[in-house]
Amino acid sequence: MTMNSPLWGAELDHIRLDSAAPERLAAFYRDAFAMVEQPLADGSTLLRGQNRRLIVGAAGGAEPTAGQPYSAFRFPDGAGLAAYKAHLTAQGVNLMPCPTPLFAPGAFAVADPDGRHMVFGLAAGAGQSDAMAADGAAGHPPGRLQHVVVATADLAAMMAFYENTLGFVATDHVLRDDEGGGQTLTAVFYRSTPEHHSFAMFLSDAARPDHHAYEVSCWNDIRDWADHMAALEIKLWWGPGRHGPGNNLFFMVEDPDGYKVEISAELESMADDDPVRHWPHTERSLNLWGPGWMRA
Ligand SMILES: [Fe+2]
Asked: I need a surface site. Which of 36, 176, 188, 202 has the fewest CB within 10 A?
């Protein structure tokens, strides 16, 4: 099933965060996540570290997705991107200009039902991993930008778009028991490679950014990142713990705008034909070790 998805092989390359105080936000990511700041031509700022990058810009709108206006996924090669573009075109999806300067010509964007943009393209110039390998401050543990998560008030419409139109493959569902005996989906985790999820969404009262995550190589890296945060007097906001879906070790911190950022390790790898699994909507599903962050 998964290998038939035209999206298969695409990985999260970068996201954009917009802020009313972009200089403060960029400085936070530079220091907390050991990245180098680089001004871009449009006035935004690129933050680059080893295998991680994001763009911070000035807040431009009041729409609920404004704080995290797009997520950009990178295809491994031009043939994959071309096939994906043809797949979307055949469905009548409106393809829009690429909003990010970090992708090569030929990249494009689509709008999801909440108005957030998903961008698909190829790394500009040399392969992204080559170009990014030398960036970032030395001496820090690794942290590869790995997944991005959004909250939505309309999970059904969002699921239809992300699964049927875009081709994300569902890995895990979280279900809440209703008083009437039925069940309500409260979270869906999606993969686009064997990694358990590269994208996920949570049911909430409104569309909003949720968090993004950097994957590290082991538990000791989590310790080292937590010590790094401690040196900067950045308190852990949630965790350390272990998620049920994904089985990954994690902690989260809050950036100055209240957006959550995760350090993760041991994220599960899935087999191509693994069916969707189901989890109860409990604190324990979200954190096997302790308190859960309940969005709904
Ligand atoms: Fe996460």
From this structure: 36
